[in-house]
Design brief:
This protein is mostly helical and 193 residues long. It is 80% helix and 0% strand.
């Protein structure tokens, strides 16, 4: 199968819903080795997949936490033990604590080294603007904002002033891009029926 934007957009949308690469590849009908080859050959696809997996895991975690909390509210003893051992350092085993630390460290490395790496002529904000806009197209404006906030905080190192600059700059960037695309459509109208 050849790499094309329609398939890759579909893959990213599915990964946001279900963050499992083999499942999504089977659903779409591509071999997972093709998927990984595309990841290594296409930097933009790699960044989109990385972001989609983070968003998908967040979505799945939200659903799972909701189920656990409902069971906790129904006095389910096993749910209480599960919650405490996975969310409190006081009750977690040393192996769980180490695993959580390693996962967090690995996720931070992925985000800092790949999701925000920039190509020639790009700034980190431009890469984030593109990611934000694609997220809006996939998830809708409200959900995209919820998910992008984590990336923005990470990228801005918690500097609230820089975060505000990011969001203001994004709005300006998006308006300029829309204006440019409209001018381009007028200059080069689509002649297809």
């Amino acid at each position: 199968m050849k790499y094309n934007p329609d398939i890759t957009t579909h893959i990213v949308k599915e990964l946001v819903k279900i963050p499992n690469i083999r499942y999504v590849c089977a659903k779409i009908g591509i071999d997972h080795s093709t998927f990984y080859r595309w990841m290594s050959q296409h930097h933009t696809f790699f960044k989109l997949v990385t972001a989609a997996l983070v968003m998908g895991r967040d979505n799945t975690t939200d659903v799972a936490e909701g189920i656990i909390i409902k069971r906790l509210q129904n006095d389910d003893y096993k749910a209480a033990i599960f919650w405490l051992t996975h969310n409190s350092s006081h009750y977690a085993t040393s192996e769980q604590t180490r695993r959580i630390y390693m996962h967090t460290k690995h996720a931070s490395e992925i985000l800092s080294e790949t999701a925000f790496s920039v190509g020639p002529g790009e700034t980190a904000f431009e890469v984030m603007f593109d990611l934000y806009e694609r997220s809006e197209n996939i998830l809708g404006i409200e959900h995209a904002r919820k998910h992008i906030e984590k990336f923005v905080k990470f990228m801005c190192h918690g500097d609230e002033n820089l975060e505000q600059i990011f969001y203001a700059s994004y709005a300006e960037w998006k308006a300029e891009k829309t204006e440019y695309e409209e001018k381009e459509k007028k200059a080069f109208p689509d002649e297809s029926p």
